[in-house]
Amino acid sequence: MLPARKLESYLEEGTVHIAPLAFMRGRTLDDAFVILDEAQNTTVNQLKMFLTRMGEHSKMLITGDVTQIDLPGRMESGLMHGVKLLKNIQGVNTVYLDENDIVRHRLVKEIVLAYQKDRDSKADAKPNDRKR
């Protein structure tokens, strides 16, 4: 974690910029390392807009947890769509993390596993075949 004073210095110098996704339109990000966090809550159009801001000599890092999508209704996650759509493009890579990568409190791993087990058991459950 970057110390607060160092971040303040970087912000003042213009080394680091923090910008909401909504303000990315129209920008070209040259010579930049850009991080989009919580991308599971982007729409397909928002992620496309973000990715097309990439300029020369730039890299983009996109993070998200597809088990924590908060989009309304059945709106498709831009992250999930993008991972599928862009998987065969050279230079686009995906890294998947699991419970073994958790570095928070020891209980977090157990909590994540409990939710996975619950989700998996619901997915495996067969529809009720009883006749009415």
What is this entry, summarized?
With 132 residues, this protein is mainly α. The protein has a single domain, classed as P-loop containing nucleotide triphosphate hydrolases (Rossmann fold, 3-Layer(aba) Sandwich). Helices cover 35% and strands 6% of the residues.
Notes on the protein architecture:
The protein is mostly helical. It has one domain: 3-Layer(aba) Sandwich (Rossmann fold). Helices cover 35% and strands 6% of the residues. The protein contains 4 helices and 2 strands. The chain has a two-stranded parallel sheet. The longest helix is centred in the last third of the chain and has 19 residues, at 106-124. The radius of gyration is 19 Å and the shape is globular.
Quickly count the helices. 4
Spatial extent as radius of gyration: 19 Å
The span between the termini is 59 Å
Mean pLDDT: 92
Largest sheet properties: 2 strands, parallel
- Give helix and strand order, one letter per element, not per position: HEHEHH
CATH architecture: 3-Layer(aba) Sandwich
- Oligomer designation: single chain
Number of beta strands: 2
Helix percent band: 25-40%
Give the overall silhouette.
globular
Tally of separate domains: 1
CATH names the topology as: Rossmann fold
Percent strand equals 5-15%
Instruction: Report the uncertain regions.
Output: none
List the helices and strands and how they pair.
Layout: H1 4-13, E1 33-36, H2 44-51, E2 59-62, H3 78-86, H4 106-124
Parallel strand pairs: 1-2
Helix pairs in contact: 2-3
